[in-house]
Structures are given as C-alpha cells and as structure tokens.
Amino acid sequence: MKSADPGEALTNLISLVRFANGQQTDLGPFPEQARQRSQAWLQQQESAADKPLTVEQRDSLTLVAEEIGSNAALETDDLDHGPLKSRGGLPRALALFGKEGLAALLEELNAGLSA
User: Fold this and answer.
1) 3-state class of 26 per DSSP?
2) What is the phi-psi region of residue 98: left when phi exceeds 0, alpha when psi lies from -120 to 50, beta otherwise?
3) Which residues of 66-88 are buried (b: 16+ CB within 10 A; e: fewer)?
4) 54-87 pLDDT, tens per residue?
5) Backbone dihedral region of 16: left (phi > 0), alpha (psi from -120 to 50 degrees) or beta?
6) CA torsion sign, 75 to 76 to 81 to 84?
7) CA angle, corner 96, sides to 76 and 82, nearest 5?
8) What single-letter DSSP state applies at residue 54?
9) What is the C-alpha separation between 6 and 79, in angstroms, rounded?
C-alpha cells in the first residue's frame, strides 16, 4: 500500500496490524474498507428509518465517513475543520441531525467504520 498522505499511511498501518492479528480477513486500504462499511451502514439506516434521509443528510454522512476513513476517527470538534467546515461545519451538522442525533451518529460511525 503506497500513500503520500501521512494520515492514510497511519490508517493503512491499522489495517495491516488488524490483518496480522487475525482481526480482519482481507488486507486492503483502510479508507476503502471504511467506504464499503459506510455504504452498507447507510443502506441499513435508510431501510430501518421511519423517515428516509434527505439528500443533504446522506451527503453529509458520506463526507463524515470519508473523514473517518482518512483519519480512523472523527470527533464533534473535527466538523469545523477541513472539508466538513466548507459544508457548514458543526452548526450545519447540528441542524441536520440534532445534538443527540449527531452524537449518536458519530459514535456509531466511528465504531462501525473502524471495526
């Protein structure tokens, strides 16, 4: 796995260690694995939800998942940095998901995508 990005190199190292320890059966770039998990997670959320996600909510969650794939985790404060800030940052995320909803989503995504 070749990467010029130090963050991606770190997340790929996490994948390598998990593979070596038998925690995962496939060895591949962490960002790609997180992307695949996020797509499955989004489909599950949409099929189980009382009301479907809006396009903006889906786009926001996709971007959050990409950031988790690049950095292995994402905290609430991270929403005001990088590409997430250009999409409205923390205030927009709170408007889209609510305070409790956002906290629960970040916790679930961090756990699920980094598993």
Assistant:
1) coil
2) left
3) bbbbbbbebeeebbeeeebeebb
4) 999 999 999 999 898 888 889 999 999 988 999 9
5) alpha
6) positive
7) 45
8) P
9) 20
Cα(114)–Cα(102) distance, integer angstroms: 18
**What is the residue whose two structure tokens read 């963050």?**
7
Q: Give the H/E segment covering residue 45.
A: helix 30-48
**Tokens 């980094």 correspond to what residue?**
114
CA 58 to chain centre: 12
Q: What is the DSSP letter of 21?
A: T
The answer to whether residues 35 and 65 touch, using CB atoms and an 8 Å cutoff, is: yes
Both tokens assigned to 24: 């995962």
* Tokens, residue 92: 């927009």
The residue whose two tokens read 């959050």 is: 64
The confidence score (pLDDT) of residue 88 equals 94
